[in-house]
Amino acid sequence: MAAGTTASGGAAPPRQVDVLIVGAGLSGIAAARYLQTRLPRKTFAIVEARAAMGGTWDLFRYPGVRSDSDMHTLGYSFRPWLGEKSITDGASIAAYVRDTAAAYGIDRAITYDCRVLSAAWSSADATWTVATTRGAITCRFLFMCSGYYDYGEGYLPKWQDMQAFRGQLVHPQFWPERLDYAGKRVVVIGSGATAVTLVPAMAETAAHVTMLQRSPTYVVSRPARDPWARKLYDRLPARLAHGIVRWKNVLQSMYYYRLARRYPDKVKAGLLALVRKQLGPGHDIATDYTPRYNPWDQRLCLVPDGDLFDAIRGGRASIVTDTITRFTETGIALDSGRHLDADIIVTATGLKLQLLGGVTITVDGAPVDLSKTLSYKGMMFSGVPNLAHAIGYTNASWTLKCELTARYVCRLLAHMDARGYASCTPQRRSDDEIPAAPLLGLTSGYIQRAAGVLPKQGARAPWLVHQNYARDTAIMRFGRLDDGVMQFARASAAAHAA
Q1: Measuring CA to CA, which of 153, 318, 330, 456 is 20 to 30 A from 470?
Q2: Residue 430's pLDDT is what?
């Protein structure tokens, strides 16, 4: 039985565990469940910096917040999603995470308000010493499930005269609980997933919502309900139906992604044709809906049941493609000479990436610069022992890769136990020249801004990040653990003496 499951959320964390999981969001709960079922003798604990579990889905509270992936793939393979909607709201996702943790007793393993400050690896002891705001914890393996962006700070450009605006200026990451926008004129700055979510939700009661974008993104409508899912759930056991729908959606998304990369011009034309059909006549498709890049150079923006297009057709919302000259007392002055009047301005301008929650990592006293490392199978770092991190796909649901990572960590730990190894370290051979490329291949602004601090990927396996769930499933479930790159070591004499 995992020792971590005996710790209450309000108590101090245990002082020593086999595996320490950092983060109690989707990936952290998945990591705990795999440890429970595959390595039941391992002790584990979860530390969470915030006061509640759920990660992103507990933090984000802005109007309309929802998934942009279907819940049959964003949800867990081991716990079927039974909700009516496949594309669902953030509160329902947070509840699903909480219910899953409670169902398996994982909630008792979590210590809240416990921020990790640093983690120091000792090769002599084959142990991590993790400094937290609630004391030090030692562990044999450190599993970082804290996402990849800064929870404490979003990205906010510095526009001229921002302080001049007399209305309310709001960032979606820190949405005021009692913000009243009914009957107000709202400008949402941005064109990404957050913006296309906010606009139709706020347009339900606002006087008007304007989405101000510097350049367009691809917007795709998708049914909020999956008709296949309902039919299968009515006829089959939930686990079987869930598995079928999950793989149907995985293969469908893989097909469309490959199609977009192979035939970008044809896919672009098809996407824009769908936009024209959704909007009807009288809209400037070339200016407001045609991106300067190919499909999947950046993530596509999903709108369930075409809600954004409905708001625009109904006159409750509009899109303006322009650049900001300055803020004024009553709104925003644009380079075109136009002025957008606003009572509320929402800066949906993106995230600030931060891998490992900003934790300082050292190995035998030497600080680790993640930007100088290579990503091993998209889950570990070259030269860093006994540490994995969960990071999802850029072209599919986050949880798909996070579950594969959790499964692989369990394989690694079982392999080490069976052979008496104390550590596992992905190592670049000194004579092996590996061309490095950015870890995340998208051209999105939030990724490009962080390119200098993220690890790199290599040009070939196991340093290559595939962004392909089917291929990763084969590699992570059945691939060799002792692959010539992963270096295993037994405990040192010092560790035995201890």
Answers
A1: 456
A2: 64
Integer CA distances (angstroms), 365 to 51, 118, 123, 458, in order? 31, 12, 10, 27
To which residue do tokens 């625009």 refer? 312
Domain finish residue from 303, 331, 347:
347
Terminal Cα distance for the chain, rounded: 24
Cα–Cα distance measured from residue 328 to residue 382, given in angstroms and rounded to the nearest whole number: 50
- pLDDT tens string 464-488: 888 889 999 999 999 999 999 999 9
Closest-CA residue to 211 (of 226, 225, 192, 229): 192
Gap between the Cα atoms of 71 and 83, Å rounded: 9
pLDDT at 2: 46
Work out the angle at residue 90's Cα, subtended by the Cα atoms of residues 300 and 315, and round it to the nearest 5 degrees: 60
Q: What is the dihedral of CA 9, 15, 20, 22, to 10 degrees?
A: 50
Q: How many domains does the chain have?
A: 2
Proportion of the chain above pLDDT 70, given as a percent: 95
Q: Select from 347, 374, 395 the last residue of a domain.
A: 347
Give residue 10's pLDDT band: very low, low, confident or very high (50, 70, 90): low
Nearest to 18, CA basis, from 201, 105, 140: 140
Q: Do 126 and 193 share a domain, yes or no? A: no
**Structure-block tokens of residue 359:** 């934790």
Structural domain span for residue 281: 162-347
Mark whether 404 and 280 lie in a shared domain: no
How far apart (Å, rounded) are the C-alpha atoms in residues 131 and 167?
42
**369 neighbors 356 (Cβ within 8 angstroms):** no
Dist. CA 257–CA 235, nearest whole Å:
31
My answer on whether 16 and 38 are in the same domain is yes
Q: Which residue is listed with tokens 């499930």?
A: 145
